[in-house]
Amino acid sequence: MRHIPLIAIILSAAACQQNGEIKTGSSNNSAYTLTEGYHLNEDSVLLFTSRKDLPENEADRLFRQAIDVYRNQENPAAALPLFRQSILKAPRAAAFFEYGNALSEMGDGSASMQARLSVEQALQAYHIADLLGYKPVSKLLYNTACLYAKSGKEDSAFHYLVSAIEFGYTNTAQIYKDSDLAPLREIRWRFDNEITAALSGASDPDRLLWKLFSHEFQPLELPVVFDTKFREDKSFSNVTYDFEKFIPEMRNAKFSRDVGSEYYYIGSVQSTPQFTVLTYAVQDVMMDEGAPYCYYLASFDANGKLLDKMIVGGHRILDEPFRVGKITGNGEVEVRKFAVRYEKDPAQNGYAENKMEEMNEVGVEYFAISPEGRFTPKSVPLAMR
């Protein structure tokens, strides 16, 4: 599996990949050329930066020009083409960071297509700045939080703001006065609870480990359905064994790590000061690389202690019913169970190119997420919305 750095995982779930290409004349990296239409394509940028003959002095001159226009003349729109020219000469982390800042000022929080595009491009610029080694990471996270807050995406904004604190952002005065974060401060109870908890936990190694784990889970758009199509067109990031204390299946499989199961971050369902509800997936690659994912819903207390857990999608073993779960925004969970028939016996032939021919429903269960963070059975159908 491809290794993805922690901060890259955090930022990439929100980044917008631009269309791009790499122009090549030979297999030598000196032939790679970066053109303006593709300056936010991370693969193109990373290949281009591997060249040894980039005009770095010219890039620095253009970058200083862009900074002067952006900061001193307070004209982000006029600075954007200068930042792009600098990047096309020799991509630098600082150039992408400031380019993202200028773009974020163009995303004025309106619903216009241009504003939304500026936000998406700013997020991608921050992502590439991280890939190129921008420091401090906490500032990238903080600016991302501000961008989400201005865009009205409160859950994501809180997510990145807390992460920024845990990665070392300690300017509390700025947090409490920054106009970009005003929408978060209006939710006073949540703002005070999350910021206080983040600041108090930043020096606690165990709490920090929990925060690093839990903040890898991006907020899910609810309602969400974990069916056979859920994984289509999605790329899940692997959970490493650094976090095995939070995933019981991972601890149980500790002696077969190389050939057993793969574990994936899926998303965050609910977060309160008392508990957090997350979803992760397990795939039995020992059984078959095409084996279905098994989706778990798990709740943890504020210190990362497991409170409750249940399967909401797929199945662990063939003899179990195949589950299709739906989680709604009001904290209710529906799990339908199916008897599944494949074209060929997957125990003998695996799942690759083995068509699922039939799914017959054999039962349904309903649950609600309680105020204590547990999954309480219900006897009545969900109030779907």
TrEMBL record:
Alphabetical list of Gene3D superfamilies matching this protein: Tetratricopeptide repeat domain
Q: Which PROSITE patterns has this protein been placed in? A: PROKAR_LIPOPROTEIN (PS51257)
Per its record, how is this protein called by name?
A: Tetratricopeptide repeat protein
Taxonomic source organism = Chitinophaga pollutisoli
